[in-house]
Every structure is written in C-alpha cells, then in structure tokens.
Amino acid sequence: MGYIEKISDKIAKLIIKEGLDYNQTKAVFKAARQKAGLKPEKKMVGTVERLSLEEELTFINQAYQESGRTGLMMQTLLETGCRASEFIELRVEDVSFAERLITIHKGKGGKRREVPVREDLAKQLKIHIGKRKAGPLFKSRQKPYKYTRQRIGQIVRGIAQKAAINKRIYPHLLRHTVATKLLNLGMGIAEVQKFLGHKDIATTQLYAVMNLP
After folding, report:
1. Residue 108 known to be catalytic
2. 156: closest CA among 52, 89, 71, 81?
C-alpha cells in the first residue's frame, strides 16, 4: 500500500468515527490546511487568444484581396497594436515618416504614446497619404467620413469569414497577436507594455504565458 493510500485510510476511518458528512469534511480539510500553512499553487492565467502565423498571413492576404486600402488598414491595425477606439482616431498628422512613428494621442485613459512602424508599412502609408497634410489617416466613404469601432469590427469579422478562419476574430485579437509576436521575438516585457499602452505590467504579462508558435 502506498503512502497516499495509508494516509487516506486513516483519514477515512477518522471521518467515519466522527460521523462527518461531505460538507463537514470540506470545512475540516480547509481548516487543517490553514493551520498547516498550506496554500493552493497560483495558477497560470489562461493563454490569450491570438492568430497563429498561418492565420495572420491568411487574414492579411484576404484583406488585400478586398482592396489595397482595406489591406493597409488591417495591416496598420495589426502591426501597431492599436485598440479599435485608438485606430479610428488616427490622423495623417500623427504619422512621422522621419522617425517612423505613429503617435496615439487618445489612448486608454487619455494617455499618449508613440508606436514604432516598420519601414515597409511606413512606405505604404506614405503612398496612401499622398499630399494630404491633415485629416483621418483612413477616411470612411460615408459622412462624417470617420470610421466607428463597430464598423472596424464588422470589417475584421468579414475578412476573417471570407478567409475561412475557424476562430472568432475581432479587432482586439489582432492586438493580442502582435503582443505575443513581439514577446516571442525577444522584446522585453516593459517595452511591450509601453508599446501597447498598458497601465499595469501585469496586464502585459498575460501575453507572456503564450507558447511559442
């Protein structure tokens, strides 16, 4: 008989002797653990949902099949890690091609942050902006020519559906995707926190439990 069996036999005999029911035994064990200084192990937070590399490429490819403009919108949303509420506020004036930065003025809590942009994306944005000096970075075709969070969500879901991605896709999932990618590429947790505009680094650490692709 093993150790666990021996101990469980002793406990079972004591329970029977004292005439304890199920709920009483739960209370007894809880009190016993507390007296012994035992605490449950901290569980790892469940992994954050994201797009796999294959899904990401499929999603962006489908977006560009819709139109070059739609593709660039989705690529910008993905690579900058913008929240949908931040993305719809982006303006031409927020893009610095000299520094390859996009400034988000209306982040969560009204905070401002600067997001680095890859050279390839910067070149595409420069062509997209053309001679414009001001105005929405991506203009809606309908008045008041500004996208809403709901519309961005519709676009993201529509692309995912056409791409036959068997997963619930929404704008914030793209944010999850770039966050985990940056961590997997070796960016420090503090830098990713700054990139995403998280107030608490514990929020950023949720992405650190992701498995490498």
Report:
1. yes
2. 71
95-96 and 101-104: which strand pairing?
antiparallel
CA 38 centroid distance within chain: 34
| Main-chain phi, psi angles of 103, to 5 degrees | -95, 125
| Alpha-carbon span 29 to 179, nearest angstrom | 42
The structure's pTM equals: 0.71
pLDDT in tens, 50-89: 898 899 999 999 999 999 999 999 999 999 999 999 999 9
CB hemisphere CA count around 124 (13 angstroms):
17
Which one is catalytic: 108, 139, 146, 194? 108
Q: In order of start, what are the domains of the chain with their CATH numbers?
A: 3-35 (no CATH), 53-209 (1.10.443.10)
